[in-house]
Amino acid sequence: MHTDEAVNAYITGQLLAGETYHYDNHDRHGPALYAAALPIARLAGAKNLAALDETTLRLVPVLAGVLVVLLFVFAVPEIGLATAALAALLWALAALPVYYDRYFIHETIFVAATAGFLLAGWRLLNTASLASAALTGLCAALMLACKETAVLNFAAAGAAIAWWWWETRHTRKSIFGFNSAHWRSGAAALGVFLAVLALLFSWGGQNWQGLADLARSVPRLLVRASGEGHEKTATYYLTLLGNGWSGRMFLLLTLAGGVSVACDAWRVMTRHPSPVTRHSAALRLCLVYALAICVIYSAIPYKTPWLALNLWLPFSVLAAAGAVAVWCAAKSTTARWVLLAFAALMLVALGRTTRKWVFLLPSDEQNPYAYAHTGEDMLRLQEFFDKPARRDALIAVLATDSWPLPWYLRHCSRVGFWQPEQDPGAADFYITLPEAAERMQARLKDWRPEFYGVRPGVLLVLWTPPEKLP
What we know:
It is a single chain. By secondary structure, the protein is an alpha/beta fold. It has helices at about 5-15, 30-45, 55-75, 75-80, 80-95, 95-100, 105-125, 130-145, 150-165, 180-200, 210-215, 220-225, 235-240, 245-270, 280-300, 310-330, 335-360, 375-385, 405-410, 435-440, and strands spanning about 395-400, 415-420, 430, 450-455, 460-465.
């Protein structure tokens, strides 16, 4: 379990044990992940942290990832069957989404909510129905209840709406381009958004301070955006998406789709007499959103690999559109057979890459998606303390940042955590940073040290007294 997963698991365990959720706007995200995890954990019979396991928790992002694939079914009327099917296939097979669809973090639920928000929002623009309004407001609230960075996606969606407003300037009936039905539906969407947001951040009315803390989170977001040790170059996400042969082909198809849609947009701008379909209209908004979200996320110094899912969602649609455009451009039977062979090779390459990084080497340091991931040594440490004779032992942990140890020691009944400079007193076992052990030389004399790699560049030492040596 990644450190972030372990932290989320710990919070979920506290909520299962009956504690009230308190939103931490300094170093945590919103409540949506825990609200989704609790019913699944309870169905599995878990009542506290010790009763949780990786499978139960990771079912949450797995189901969210499946939901994204299923949402492409509802995109068929908007972008066409072939484009929707290919985009769904890219999401279901590619390493980036599959890897993080197994991560107990907020990102996959966030992207699922984003997909719902974009779909419902598009239908709201076209139909101004109350059902679309309610779904738009619900999905927008879920996005913000997952991560405060939803405001960036809202900004990108705003750019797409601005394009729609400009594109329909010759047909709108008012200066704002919205009729009375749009205003009523917009008010309904806002009402649902605020109601769901209040329900989640107050944890069902149990802690209204959460809403005030959300409003005060903006300064902290601005500080975090500066990097805080996670600074990357502007091209980081494009490099990550273009990883390997299949990734480069994906970006090439995305570019082809973008050019095809941009050419259609040019015809609209010049009022070309060629017919404009509803599918191309939706794809034009997708292109504007994709460009905006790519620019926004690339410009911000703070970057982690799972944030690339925000680019993968619209890029997969454009890549699918590019594949459809290339297919339509190939008129001869021979050319289409060549394209089918190429598509088969690309799918095989996607599958091989996914198998390598997701299933065979998920925590390897060379894995481009394993970002400061927990090493497999933690499984050995857990196995050491999972023996019945050691579960009641007094364990003292001395580390500046002890995560993910609270997860891997969750079955032990007596574990304490201290900073390296503190004196924990007598204990049956000590787990320390290497430098902390130097200050405890007298106490640890004749104790046996064993080193465990927590994550790249971070070591912990397990100290076992002579009488407890196996």
